[in-house]
Amino acid sequence: MSTGGPDVRARVDAVWDQLSPAERRVAAMVRHDPELLLVGTSAELAAESGTSKATVSRLVRSLGFQDAAEVRQNLMSARGSGLPWVAEDAAHVDQRAVEARNLDAAFASLGRADRPRLARRIVRARRVLVLGERGAYPIALQLRSQLAQVRSDVRVGPSPGQRLGEEVADLDRHDLVVLVTVRRHTAGVERIVRHCVDSGADVVVLGDPTAAVIAASATTAILCPVDSPSAFDSMAALFAVVAAIANDVYDASGPGGRVRVDAVASAYDALGELAAP
After folding, report:
1. Above 60 in pLDDT, residue 171?
2. How deeply is 7 buried, as exposed, middle or buried, from its count of CB atoms within 10 A (0-12, 13-18, 19+)?
3. Positive or negative CA dihedral for 153, 157, 158, 163?
4. How far is CA 105 from CA 65, 170, 245, in A?
5. Which of 29, 55, 215, 234 is deepest in the core (most CB within 10 A)?
6. Angle at 197 between CA 4 and CA 204, to 5 degrees
7. What are residue 220's phi and psi, to 5 degrees?
């Protein structure tokens, strides 16, 4: 059975309406990057999508494979991996192990986004707009802060007292948008992504695995697990990826980026804005 990228996308499209919400999260990732079925195990795909191996298995059958063995035979090298787990007693959970798993999955997703090319896209864009609301806003703000050290015209939205409409009204193909979104997502975030895509802008969605469906129409999706044994999600993997992206952009910016960094540092000194180290 041949199962190349376009065929996988067609299979996903054909069964989309029959899939459960959890299956759609996996399917959206597979549709966006069919190579996931070639390089990842069911456990890894489950971890990145925030679902379970059982959900991945149901999707595999829905796509026309008999079972995971057939997928491995046709598409994947067999690689064992343990199931992601959820702690019933958070006090006895090794939080570092959870974060390590989250970081591994996040950087695997970033790697599939083609890091050098992503950095060049950010450098070459006329302007960069970083969007984030609710819990995503601090992540968006950090990304904007770091990118603004390296290149000009990096904005974050929504600005205080504004809505996103003011931020995205004049986007075009010369612009790049990074939309940061984490569960629970704000209402209408999928419409924002589609609006930005329809404007011609280069759109990157950075979020947790539940953003996979939201990112379906975007150019690039980077999905970072936020699993935690505690009551609140951990954003450590997202902030780590933000730092990696910013460093990639610094490297890709060449001499122009260094000049920008020096100019910003000189402006800090001239204005006396920062305390002496």
Report:
1. yes
2. middle
3. positive
4. 25, 35, 16
5. 29
6. 70
7. -140, 140
